[in-house]
């Protein structure tokens, strides 16, 4: 089971051993993908899947019935225990939480990709595996790619301004992202301007609106990630880009 009644506009279906919560309009897509056993397996077997590197490989595909462009991700653990826990989660996994967080953030006007469906399949010893499918943000790239020397200073500054707008929108509604990093900020050009979307929202928790602790936590996570990207990838990064969120660098250390 994927936990609780589906949100408005979504339906629960089962295909083989895969329990799916999907937008009603994508039920045909869900059934077609899950015929391969899981949503992720269906994506990997689809015509011309485009691999995306991250924590494991995600696939950008055209959904098989509607043709909607989407990104299909198999959930995996990160951190020190990733080698032990891999893709195994306690039921109902974090996928239902990610769906709820996505809907709540979008309802608060925080940009994040739209979750089209989630799928959960049983695994040994009472564990489960999960897949999440989001609508693809076209012509997008993460903040880390804008920090490289191949990117102009003007474009890099525009990217950081879009990232700051995103972080301030999280802060305003009390949304603290416990893994806010340069790979989880996705940028795309819309109506001539760069805008930023937040990814991996299963790591978001809601606290008090406008809390200084939320703002400080988000800024610290982003600063830590940007420093690491600079140190490990020779990226270009001015710490004032994070201090411009209104938090002095001295408080971020």
Give a quick summary of the entry.
The chain is an alpha+beta fold and 253 residues long. Helices cover 34% and strands 28% of the residues. The protein is built from nine helices and 13 strands.
Order of helices and strands: EEHHEEEHEHEEEHHEEEEHHH
User: Which band does the percent of strand residues land in?
Assistant: 25-35%
* Low-confidence residue ranges: none
Largest sheet: 8 strands, antiparallel
Distance between the termini: 42 Å
Total beta-strand segments: 13
Helix content: 25-40%
Q: Enumerate how many helices there are, as a single number.
A: 9
Q: Radius of gyration in whole Å, from Cα?
A: 18 Å
Overall domain count: 2
- Based on secondary structure, the structural category is alpha+beta
Mean pLDDT, to the nearest integer, reads: 93
Structural shape: globular
Structure description:
With 253 residues, the protein is an alpha+beta fold. It is 34% helix and 28% strand. The protein has 9 helices and 13 strands. Strands 1, 2, 3, 4, 5, 6, 7 and 8 form an 8-stranded antiparallel sheet that branches. A hairpin with a 2-residue loop joins strand 11 (185-190) and strand 12 (193-198). Helix 6 runs antiparallel to helix 7. It starts with 9 loop residues before the first strand and ends with a helix. The model has no long low-confidence stretch (mean pLDDT 93).
Which labels suit this protein?
253 residues; alpha+beta; Transferase(Phosphotransferase), domain 1; 8-stranded antiparallel beta sheet; 3-stranded antiparallel beta sheet; 9 helices; 13 strands; 34% helix; globular
